[in-house]
Amino acid sequence: MATSKFSALAQSKCPKCRIGYVFEGPVYGFRKQKMNESCPHCGVKFEVEPGYFYAAMYVSYAFSVAEVVSLAVGTYMLSKSESPWVYLGVLIFTILLFAPFNFRYSRLVLLHYLTPKISYNPRYEEEQSKL
Fold it and tell me: What are the tens digits of pLDDT across the range 100-110?
């Protein structure tokens, strides 16, 4: 059975074969996140061209805005505070808390949904299921 694009993204799998991992290790941990240069299974190079992942900053920015606005609205609903310091604290806390998540998933969204040069090839999963 083929892995869905969303499931492959959530599990940090390669956009071409959906078997190999794009990142080593968990999202949150004591070690720095390490992204593989190419897929350990199919060998596709993730950085399509030099500086390719600069575009992931725009995706990360969209994630950050959504997270900060959601938590600011939630903070207002719960506390009804008008102090700018409360919202500044929520903003800083949110950005720091979600930074590893945004780093990883902005690159994965870019690879899976916004990269026309890398497309899914079901042949890899078919070969894997025969083994």
Answer: 999 999 999 99
